[in-house]
From TrEMBL:
Transmembrane segments: none annotated. GO terms for cellular component: RNA polymerase III complex. InterPro entries: RNA_pol_III_Rpc5, RPC5_C. Residues 444-702 form the DNA-directed RNA polymerase III subunit RPC5 C-terminal domain. GO terms for biological process: tRNA transcription by RNA polymerase III. Residues 146-169 are annotated as: Disordered. Residues 146-155 have a biased composition (Basic and acidic residues). It comes from the Eukaryota. This is RPC5 polymerase.
Length: 702
């Protein structure tokens, strides 16, 4: 009471609450402009609105005579947007940027507390606002300028494109049959961001007429901001009790979901996120991130969060893979949903994704073809699974995207053990569903548990190698003695059969161990099955039984022949790569592991009917010597031998050739009746297209 007496009322103001303009009263907030160019100086050319979205677009004229206006810049912008020609479609008909478009956005989601007030003659007149819109410059003219630039570039490149004919590739087409849409699926589609954006785009613009500040129509409408019932005693709006009147002045803060701005369903600010329960926070984070270390999760949840509670919640929505948490499949694919690619139900998708997650618990690498072969899912679904938790590596496969989290594994062994038991149960289910063989699963599991390449030091590797050598020494010694006995018992005639192989003639002592044994010769100097710089006979300079070298030559010849009948043209580098892949697919102890040199491989290529094509590479080429050696199958025994020979002769004179030159040469050498299919067949066998030119396979240098 004392405070009220010290603060007396100085004046009472009559308040009039108006509602006649409530549905059409908006507050526009314009951007700040230079003092010399106020909005009084700007003429509104046009205006339009989308009423349902409360979206407004205004077009205003710019005062080009103002000293602050840069005329050269305005001319440059107009030139970039419209080009040199002017027509009805031009944005700037005066060849000068003389207007600016402003687009609106909602400044507040709830405007029930805001009103437009006018104070006149001791009375305060309040009109509730229907919306508050912020006007910002629209730069759509820049998009138009970019489109013009692309059109000009396409026009300039049109001359060359007429001479370049793209190779017709046969593409696989997947046919899918749409299923009847369920009520839940329809509701999700209607609430999706794409549907809302489409519905907003479909709403038609309503064009408006702008009236200036001093226009008579503006003066008339402005009178509605004042109360017209000065002498009336009745005022139904204010016949309220004090509590009701106070409630009208200060309504309770109620969050209305319908008033929130439209945004994608997966967009949530950190401030909004931290208002949710801990379990919901973790679920939303994992659903969006999909793979996360525990330390990163704790940093996102904020300081003061109990790690024990987080561990309890994270196990409900994620599984432990290589010390990191990966969101569960049933969280990403809820019940009664289906694949957007193939329409496969969520149960099948969860099973396939669990298989991918389980594979990553066994190894850091997963092969996409293996997953597709086991799960029988379409390539798009398999790719989605792998992209959730791994990164593609060229010629290697898919690698788990995060390193092994050793810190978490050491700090929480109980969690690791519990997760291991869960994975054992999942593995048992996968074995039944996919009919997986245990002998295929056990080695990978042991390999994954025994070694983490990122965590083993160099000293540990050396110790492991020494232990393995000691363990296998006895077995290697027995094999060596057996091999030595076979050498002694071999007949001299068997040696004469291998006339092109030189065998070391060194005395073999029974007392002294032989240093250059067959097993040692297989390992020393062998790089991926190839001896890089040894003579072809020296590369086989180990004590092998008679007739073994014939088998090596036969196996090598079979590989070279089959490879060139598939590829027709190969560089030495590519041939060595394919040979190493072939070696990797062979069982241990195969005859080709005796060691094949580069020279022996090249000699075998020439012996199988291939020829070296001396391609005139440009002097500034950065290719390696192996990439500069190009070999081609000269005679395959089919009807296209002559065509390929003409093509190869053409590339012995030119590094790259246009298609029309190739077609003319083939027509001259092989006849005028050569059709497009025959030319395409020959080009597909030997060449690749890049930038409108044709190159021999493996010789393209970008």
């Amino acid at each position: 009471m004392a405070n009220e007496e010290d603060d007396p009322i100085l004046q009472e103001v009559e308040v009039h609450f108006l509602g006649s303009l409530h549905e059409v009263c908006f507050l526009f907030q314009y951007p700040i402009r230079p003092a010399s160019m106020t909005y009084d100086d700007v003429t509104h050319l046009s205006a339009k609105i989308k009423p349902k979205q409360q979206k407004v677009e205004l077009e205003m004229a710019i005062d080009t005579l103002n000293p602050n206006y840069c005329r050269s810049k305005g001319e440059q912008i107009a030139l970039n947007v419209d080009g040199t020609c002017t027509d009805e479609t031009s944005t700037y008909s005066s060849k000068l940027m003389d207007k600016q478009t402003f687009c609106s956005s909602q400044a507040a989601s709830n405007v029930s507390r805001y009103a437009a007030a006018v104070y006149k003659k001791g009375e305060l007149h309040l009109t509730p606002l229907h919306g508050i819109l912020q006007l910002r410059p629209s730069f759509t003219y820049l998009d138009k300028a970019d489109a013009k630039h692309r059109e000009r570039e396409a026009a300039t490149e049109g001359g060359d494109s007429s001479q370049d004919e793209a190779e017709d590739d046969v593409k696989q087409i997947t046919v899918r049959f749409s299923r009847p849409e369920t009520e839940q699926a329809r509701q999700r589609r209607v609430q999706s961001y794409e549907f809302l954006q489409k519905r907003q785009a479909e709403e038609q613009w309503v064009h408006l007429h702008y009236y200036g500040l001093k226009d008579s129509r503006s003066e008339h409408e402005r009178q509605y901001l004042f109360s017209q019932a000065h002498g009336l005693a009745e005022n139904t709006e204010l016949i309220k009790s004090p509590s009701e009147y106070l409630m009208m002045l200060m309504p309770p803060s109620v969050e209305e979901e319908n008033d929130k701005p439209v945004a994608p369903s997966n967009v949530l600010s950190m401030a909004q996120l931290r208002t949710l329960p801990l379990a919901d926070q973790i679920k939303i984070l994992m659903k969006n991130v999909k793979v996360m270390p525990f330390a990163n999760l704790m940093s996102l949840l904020g300081s003061g969060t109990d790690s024990t509670a987080v561990l309890r919640c994270i196990q409900q929505v994620a599984m432990l893979v290589q010390g990191n948490w990966v969101v569960k499949s049933d969280v990403l694919y809820p019940k009664d949903t289906s694949s957007p690619h193939s329409g496969v139900p969520a149960e099948v998708l969860c099973r396939g994704r669990d298989f991918v997650m389980w594979k990553f618990t066994q190894d850091r690498w997963v092969v996409r073809k293996e997953v597709a072969a086991v799960t029988k899912l379409c390539p798009e679904d398999v790719k989605d699974f792998l992209e959730h938790m791994s990164v593609a590596r060229i010629n290697k496969g898919w690698e788990f995207m995060l390193p092994y989290d050793e810190d978490f594994v050491k700090k929480h062994p109980d969690i690791v053990q519990r997760q291991h038991m869960l994975w054992m149960g999942i593995q048992a289910k996968l074995e039944k569903v996919y009919s997986l063989l245990k002998e295929h699963l056990t080695p990978k599991k042991q390999e994954a548990q025994s070694a983490h390449p990122l965590l083993v030091s160099g000293e540990q590797r050396v110790n492991m190698a020494k232990a393995k050598v000691k363990q296998n020494y006895g077995q290697l010694e027995k094999e060596f003695q057996k091999q030595k006995a076979e050498m002694k018992s071999s007949d001299t005639s068997a040696k004469m059969d291998v006339s092109d192989v030189r065998i070391k003639e060194e005395p073999v002592s029974d007392e002294e161990p032989m240093e250059a044994s067959a097993c040692e010769a297989m390992n020393n100097g062998l790089v991926n099955g190839l001896h890089p710089e040894e003579d072809s006979t020296d590369s086989l300079n180990c004590h092998l039984p008679g007739g073994c070298m014939d088998r090596v030559a036969q196996e090598l010849k079979a590989f070279v022949s089959s490879t060139f009948r598939k590829q027709f043209v190969l560089t030495l580098s590519e041939l060595k790569r394919l040979f190493n892949l072939h070696l990797a697919s062979l069982p241990p102890g195969h005859t080709l592991f005796s060691g094949i040199s580069d020279k022996m491989l090249q000699d075998m290529v020439l012996d199988t009917g291939c020829k070296q094509i001396l391609v005139p590479f440009p002097p500034q080429t950065a290719a390696s010597p192996d990439e500069l050696k190009v070999y081609a199958l000269w005679e395959a025994g089919d009807t296209y031998d002559q065509h390929r020979q003409v093509l190869l002769e053409l590339f012995s004179k030119n590094y790259r050739v246009r298609r029309n030159v190739i077609q003319n040469q083939l027509s001259q050498e092989c006849g005028e009746d050569l059709n497009k299919q025959e030319v395409d067949r020959v080009l597909k066998d030997c060449c690749v297209s890049y930038g409108g030119m044709w190159y021999l396979k493996g010789t393209v240098q970008s």
